Amino acid sequence: MSDARAIAKEAGDTGRASLPMAIERNRRTTRRRFLPKLLKVAGRIPFADDLAAAYYAALDPATPKKVRGVLLAALAYFVIPTDMLPDFIAGFGFSDDATVLATALGIVGGHIDERHRRAARRLLGKREPAVKPRGDQEAGAA
Predict the structure, then answer these.
(1) For the whole model, what pTM was predicted?
(2) Is there a contact between 79 and 34 (Cβ–Cβ < 8 Å)?
(3) What is the pLDDT of residue 30?
């Protein structure tokens, strides 16, 4: 039997109750643990901006529920101490976290907008990117 729903139904799980509970659990875990961990390790991971932007998108009520669920699952994976590669392993510890986040962003990244990215930059103390005036861009292309 290859259909995941059929397997879950055979096991007695309708799927309707467990998914929202899992999303709520991920939301609570993320809200409690995400910011302290991110701020602690932000200088050591190159994907801190994406993590923070995903966090703000996941907490944004305007973000669709399914998107929030995917983002919260990826963020919860980042904060859970028992993941595939422990974070303290030098050089490799965050590679599994980066992979999970990259996969989530590949699926729902279009829902992370400039407001979320701006909030992420503020959180991490990063400057806003310089915006070139239109005239300079056109002159450079000629």
Answers:
(1) 0.65
(2) yes
(3) 77
